[in-house]
Write a structure and sequence with these properties.
Elements: H1 2-9, H2 14-35, H3 41-55, H4 58-61, H5 84-98, H6 104-122, H7 147-181
Amino acid sequence: MRSFVFRITCMASNAAHHATGWAAGLIAATAVAQASHTSLEHLGSILAFCAAVAGSTAPDWMEVAWWTRARRLWITHRTATHWGIGWVAVLVLSYQALGHGHLWAPLLFGFACGGLMHLLADWPNPLGVPWIWGRHSLNLWKSGRCDLIVVILAWAAACWLVRPLWAATATRVVEWLAHQAR
């Protein structure tokens, strides 16, 4: 029970991780759509989106020993599952594989986007996250207190990052409408 209480008080809320996960999903789906050059790019975008939403809570649920009745943590909170280099490495390697038509690449890329978004949401609180070696904290507020700020920042970043795809899509729609009007 003590480990459960520790998890509740020392991390961004589960709702905040889910809300930022949807933003990560939008980023992942857009990146897959732009990087993929296969006939499965739409499927890849959907898979990336879903995987990002799942990945946004992964650093926390990967610590839980689901195979035991007690459901205790089998990895100390904010250690291996919150390691920044690991998530960034998976993100980069899976992004490089996107253009080669591997079906696993959008899934892994989306999952890594969600996991990285989770770390960014946890970073401002005093416990911090282990980006490279040892934990680093922005020490801005205690977890759960400013979740709305984290969610707004995540969605602002998502909107800014997907801007080029929206602009390209709007241009194609206008061209199509102009062609239909002739």
